[in-house]
Amino acid sequence: MRVILIGYRGTGKTSVGRILAESLDLPFFDTDTLVERTAGVSIPEIFRQHGEARFRALERGVIESLAGVEGVISTGGGAVCDPTNVADLRRHGRVYLLSASPETIGERIAGSDRPGLTDLPPEEEVRSLLARRKDAYLGAADACVDTGSRTPVEVAGIILRDIRGENALPLEGRRERDDLLERFGLSGLRGMLGRDPGLMVCGIAGYPCAHSRSPLLYNRLFERFGMNYHYTLFEWPDVGTIIRLASLLPTKGLSVTIPFKTDVMRYLDEVDEHAAAIGAANTVVRCGGRSYGHNTDWLGVRTPLLHRQGARAVVLGAGGAAAAAVYALCSLDMEVTILARKPDAARRLAERFNCRWGGLEDFRGCKADVVLNATPVGMEPDTRSLLDAGDLEQGMTVFDLVYTPPDTPLIRAARETGCEAIPGTEMFVHQAVEQFRLITGIAVSPEEVREVLS
Known about the structure:
The protein is of the alpha/beta class and 454 residues long. The protein has three domains: 2-163, Rossmann fold (3-Layer(aba) Sandwich); 171-295 and 436-453, Leucine Dehydrogenase, chain A, domain 1 (Rossmann fold, 3-Layer(aba) Sandwich), CATH 3.40.50.10860; 299-422, NAD(P)-binding Rossmann-like Domain (Rossmann fold, 3-Layer(aba) Sandwich), CATH 3.40.50. The chain contains 19 helices and 17 strands. The strands form three sheets. Strands 7-6-8-10-11-9 form a six-stranded mixed β-sheet, with helices on both faces. A six-stranded parallel β-sheet has the order 14-13-12-15-16-17, with helices on both faces. The longest helix is centred in the first third of the chain and has 19 residues, at 122-140. The radius of gyration is 24 Å and the shape is globular. InterPro entries: Aminoacid_DH-like_N_sf, NAD(P)-bd_dom_sf, P-loop_NTPase, SDH_C, Shikimate/glucono_kinase, Shikimate_DH, Shikimate_DH-bd_N, Shikimate_DH_fam. Homodimer. Pfam families: SDH_C, Shikimate_dh_N, SKI. GO terms for molecular function: ATP binding; NADP binding; shikimate 3-dehydrogenase (NADP+) activity; shikimate kinase activity.
């Protein structure tokens, strides 16, 4: 058994870890203590002599040496900001994030000889670093425990009950969960959870979403990184019902697809700046009973088009995917025109981002360098194309966000015309890299994602 405690200094990791180790009859490892033992000097002295970079390198080596080792492991406050550390810590382990308010942390660490990591006053540094590390903490954790008003014994008790599967839903909650699982066609998941109460769940929320390759990708990556996780389909016509089922399961993350990327935001406790600006979320991270929304679609659009910065672009469509695309293209200083079957929808989206707009029939007058299809047209079984080879010109870059099938009619027309053709699989790959990091804290490369999907 591996139990890993993460979180900011002063949240009780060492005290709670020692109690857990004794209760579980496991060895206790404190990575800060092991760093000092390796260096032969105290952590403040490491910082004084060599700086933070040397400390982080020593910390990385210590955590690597503990990969797969049974025991209770207490980590330094910034350890999980390095995705390599997260991969080593997560391997066959269960990770608990211990948290407390900035005020409580400030009181607990007052008088410490540990050097500051910024030039800010101590109270401001705590707030700043908590904000900076928030995504890393939430991503790396399987469960979150607030230690602010609890003693170390109480916190350890919560974790022990979780490990033993004793933090079960009340009877009414179990009945509702099981009924929803049956309605969703997920009775097999109910059996998996019955056999393994420590199993964590992720899934894709959409209608339809059976075509998605996310289950294949995530389940293979979970296996690769030794994570006790399972990714499934939450295919249902109402996103509120999906969110309710997710709240009754040990759900860590959701990928959100059509038609729910906008509607899902009503059910989230927080959204990041990108999702708020786009008005759509395709990623939900859950921890400690709260849901955090993100948008990674825009990165899936932006990354393959970095070489076309400053170009003239046309976006076909005015829905959630189009909003993410426009946001990405504007971040690359492109001159964007939005064209849609319903011009009013194009106008509304264009007004948000200060772009040109029109109907689909206006395409030929746009003189585009980049053409991006952000509609579902081309997705099986509707394998049509909004444009044909006669609408395209050699030298254009054509990006179709549809990835099932990967070789859409629009992509074929682009190749026939001599355009640069970017299939929707590239968007999927690059957004999945960021989504996997947000949900698990682990960084994978685009090459790893392509390899898994091939």
